[in-house]
Amino acid sequence: MKPTVDFVVSKLADFGVATLERLATALYFTKLEPIADLEERARKIHEVKPHISKHAALDAVKRVEDILAEWKVKSAQPVEA
To answer: Please, which contacts does 77-81 make with residues 24 or more away whose CB atoms are closer than 8 Å?
Structure first.
């Protein structure tokens, strides 16, 4: 469990609450309401949370995709003792 927590902390610790809200919302739509098209996912985020611009939503969606892809690679590697 510790490598998972360390990974999340390394990716999110430097962000403020507004950025974390965008990333959390993007993660929600990525995992629970999967929409394949990134721009469509960003549009849906903006529709649900209009204070998040389409541009900021798209940036958050791309960041979440990158973080998930990186985790997929890291989690497939053997854990160091």
So the answer is: 79/3
Residue 53, Cβ density class (10 Å: 0-12 exposed, 13-18 middle, ≥19 buried): middle
How far CA 75 is from CA of 16, 20, 31, 57, in Å, comes to 26, 23, 18, 26
Q: How sure is the predictor about 3, in pLDDT bands with cuts at 50, 70 and 90?
A: confident
CA distance 27 to 45: 10
CA distance 38 to 59: 10
How far is 33 from 31, CA to CA, in rounded Å? Answer: 6
Specify the pTM. Answer: 0.86
Report the sign of the C-alpha dihedral through residues 42, 26, 70, 77, in that order. negative
> In whole angstroms, what is the distance from residue 50 CA to residue 25 CA?
12
